[in-house]
From TrEMBL, chain A:
It comes from Murimonas intestini. It is found in: Cell envelope. The keyword Nucleotidyltransferase does not apply. One of its GO terms (cellular component) is outer membrane-bounded periplasmic space. This is ABC-type sugar transport system substrate-binding protein. GO terms for molecular function: carbohydrate binding.
TrEMBL record, chain B:
This is Autoinducer 2 import system permease protein LsrC. GO terms for cellular component: plasma membrane. CDD domains: TM_PBP1_transp_AraH_like. One of its GO terms (molecular function) is transmembrane transporter activity. Its main location: membrane. It comes from the Bacteria. It is a multi-pass membrane protein.
Amino acid sequence: MSKKMKKLMAVLLCFAMLFSVTSVAQAKEDTADVKQVSIGFIGWGYTDTLGAAYKEYFDYIAEEFGMNVTLVAGTTQEEHISLAEDLIEAGVDGILAYQVTSPMMKLCDEAGVYLMQFGSPITDEDIQANLDGSDYWLGTSSVDDYKSGQNMVEALYEDGCRNMVVLGVAAGNPCHDLRWNGIMDKAAEYDDMTVIGEYRGGTAAAQEYSDQVQNFVAMYPEMDSIAMTGASSGNLDAVLSALDTVGMTGTVKLATLDVQEGTDTYLEEGSLLFIGGGQHPEVIFLAILMADIIRGSLDMGGEEVSLVGQFINIVGTDGYEEFKKYIMDDFPYYIEELKAVSTSFNPDTSYQELYDLWNSYSLDDVETRHAK
Amino acid sequence: MKTEKVRNFLPLAGLLIVFIAFAVLSGGRNLTSSNLQSIFNQSFFIMLAGICATFVYAHGGIDLSIGGLEGICMLIAVVSMRNIGFVPALILVILTGIVSGILIGGISVYGNIPVFITGLSLQYIYRGILKVATSKALITVPNQYTWLDSWGVKAVVLVAAAAVVGYLFKYTKIGRYEKAIGGNATATTLCGVNAKKYSVLAYVILGIGVGIAGLFAMVRAGGVNPQAGAAYEMDVLIAVVLGGMPLTGGAAARVRCGIIGALLIVVIENGFVLLGADPNLVDGIKGIIFIATVFVTIARRKGQVVN
């Protein structure tokens, strides 16, 4: 093949891919009998446990709820602003973001696009003041990350652990920051529990955590537990295999969040004591509220949306099978259950009913509703 | 000679082809004035650093510290603007850029340490400072400075930077010496040029550009957090390569490379969002488009020596 042909082939290949991407995007056509609402979702990625669960849930509900959801991903504030600009240009009616800032609100105000934050409440007073002055700010949803951090420490303490190492990603991720604070504050409450080491520089790269665990084991033979702010992206396997390498499986107990495949083995081995997860329906409730408000079927009367949900916690081997069956391998809320609390589909329902449904989330609750 | 002219035109042609392709696929959505402003706003930071990086790439160097430097400048800018105002903040970020340029250039050139090692080391130092300073909370910029986040202000800054850098690069000995160093450093030194001094100067110019970009990036982001400036160095590197800059340095270096490459990156990213593409596919397709663009546009000379 001549050089010119190779170059031509390279260009044609790129265009073929572009067209294939477009066809995927255009396949998301409206089939619902309500006004179509276009929502942009700014996450951090869709390959980790939680991000993948968000994507799967949106794929499940979008068409049924008359939503066209565009998922985009970025990690820095600068990227988030650029993504918000692009989503607005793409014609979305509302944006769900996990790190709302004042410039993002300004962009939405100018474009007449609604904005909500998922994952955590607004903690910065300056940002909150700017959001309060906007007609397009709708509110937040959060799961209690701070409390989940405390729960991790509590479980470790009750299991007899007293010398704990804490692992977390670098400060700046609102959810992980709250978990970290919860861990530290709870540990400080126990007079006979010591945080013997902490590592918070992580980019959440699994290898980084693995190395740190081995370092801590070498430095602190008395170490008996680890609290880690997140188990996604291979971190769970990395930390536990590092403990296995140094012969500490079952001796050092781990407490963390983000239940995933293989968790059952670790729970049975005794190396994993506590794990929480299953918080992914949070964004679905937020998206439903946003669509209801945009369609005009829900009037919040000037009140901000403030959804609060729960993690589902697994301690020891209890509950894992049920968690896998009802949360991991199935959707915790089915379409009809969600439509029942959406004013677009059920004019008799209210914000409070949706709030209560999500706020009462637990493994028992899902088992009761979806008994198999 | 004719082939060389065609090759010089290829990156721009690539940009136009990609832009037109997305215009067709998105039904012209990327042609609206507001979207064009968004593309400019998003590419401004990469363009500014790309323009100022011309001297570094012309002499065959590379600066991997600029992501951390941008983050540090964002931090200095936000603290200064909260306490002492815009002008002192601008002066401080420029000074920080100069000091950083002297550090990376001085350590690598006079300490005889490979510049990518120096760059990575400084990047770690900057990131460490940033993490400590912002570990408690996001530091936000006061509302009174949002006027800086307008495309008009950025256009003035960019045109001024392009004019100054273009003049220095084309009409003064600074540009000629940088290209000469990239072509053959030993021969340039034997001709009586202080190659070390001019190499350091190149990093200082880049540092100034990154400092100014950092101030604008902070205003755009609304503040600074530990991730500020992450992967900025890779964005700039990819941009200049896509724009046709030879990483080996020398006479083929052009100021326009950073501009064309930055626009190409942003047009692609913007286009994928406009199309509503699956986010898990986008990175892979972006990578293929980049490599195809470089495959078509890169200058291949036999017997090149990497500086």
